[in-house]
């Protein structure tokens, strides 16, 4: 009898032990959830995070807030999330830089973009836009990609190139252009698109290969001159602006350097939490209000499954390793 009682007690204890995590997960979230943006406010990563945070707040009945942690091409913010508790309360708005480029570009990363994260969903894909300060372009007689290349070759190093940080798609789009076109521009990294754009508009920077959503307002306002988009096809948001490949001549045939942004959690985050975030994010991105807003800014809404997003990230590592090698760029 005592043996049977002991076995029964053990079974009950085991069931409580197994059920406890499920109970805690089912009550998630019961406090504020933080979305870490690894760049300064004002850039596309920040814009997208702030577009979906209110939608997730409504869906889950808890606040989803944006926490900007910039530095080292997104590595500072990504590392914070990688080392956070896998409980669903700290998420990352990752980018093609943090999860596609940086492993090949940096000799040392403080995090592993594959092993340290649980992919949730792609939020949006965007083209980059090769743009100049409009007044500076007029002063130098630059009206298109061809005249830009002509001027850059005649004045090597005179033009400076802003980016949102080392290793970002904005940086690598410029490095790939430099490599293929055979021109040299001085690279000046910032802690995000927002600060870089301020200097672009002020005329302190000459050219930038920015993510389209963060530059759209300044382009429409005439402060920035779009020379070309970096995607394989023209952007519906700027249909009259050609692709780099279209107008770059034989040297730039095959040029393509688009960007993407997606939600990730620390590795080990319970699958049901990951799936619930993915499902509600996909619903938000499919809603007319959010979808139309993103499309107008030049972003294509995502919403794929965690497994699909994971496969995409794997493929991006392979693609960008080749781009980094071709460009010759390296950050120690």
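Sequence proposed for the structure above (332 residues):
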């Amino acid at each position: 009898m005592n043996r049977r009682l002991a076995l029964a007690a053990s079974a009950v204890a085991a069931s409580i032990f197994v059920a406890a995590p499920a109970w805690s997960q089912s009550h998630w979230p019961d406090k504020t959830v933080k979305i870490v943006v690894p760049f300064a406010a004002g850039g596309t990563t920040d814009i997208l995070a702030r577009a979906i945070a209110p939608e997730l707040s409504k869906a889950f009945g808890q606040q989803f807030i944006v926490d900007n942690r910039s530095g080292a091409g997104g590595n500072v913010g990504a590392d914070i999330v990688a080392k956070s508790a896998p409980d669903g309360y700290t998420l990352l708005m990752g980018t093609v830089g943090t999860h596609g480029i940086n492993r090949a570009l940096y000799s040392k990363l403080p995090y592993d973009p594959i092993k340290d994260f649980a992919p949730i969903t792609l939020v949006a894909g965007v083209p980059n836009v090769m743009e100049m300060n409009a007044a500076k372009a007029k002063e130098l007689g630059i009206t298109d990609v061809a005249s830009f290349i002509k001027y850059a070759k005649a004045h090597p190093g005179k033009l400076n190139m802003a980016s949102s940080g080392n290793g970002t798609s904005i940086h690598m789009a410029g490095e790939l252009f430099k490599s293929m076109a055979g021109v040299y521009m001085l690279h000046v990294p910032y802690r995000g698109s927002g600060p870089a754009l301020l200097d672009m508009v002020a005329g302190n920077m000459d050219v930038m290969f920015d993510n389209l959503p963060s530059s759209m307002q300044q382009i429409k306002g005439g402060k920035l001159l779009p020379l070309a988009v970096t995607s394989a096809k023209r952007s519906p948001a700027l249909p009259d602006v050609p692709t780099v490949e279209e107008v770059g001549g034989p040297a730039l045939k095959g040029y393509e350097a688009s960007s993407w942004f997606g939600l990730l959690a620390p590795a080990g985050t319970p699958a049901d939490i990951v799936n619930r975030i993915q499902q509600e994010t996909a619903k938000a991105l499919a809603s007319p209000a959010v979808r139309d807003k993103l499309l107008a800014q030049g972003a294509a809404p995502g919403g794929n499954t965690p497994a699909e997003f994971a496969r995409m990230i794997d493929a991006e590592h392979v693609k960008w390793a080749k781009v980094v090698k071709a460009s010759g760029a390296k950050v120690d």
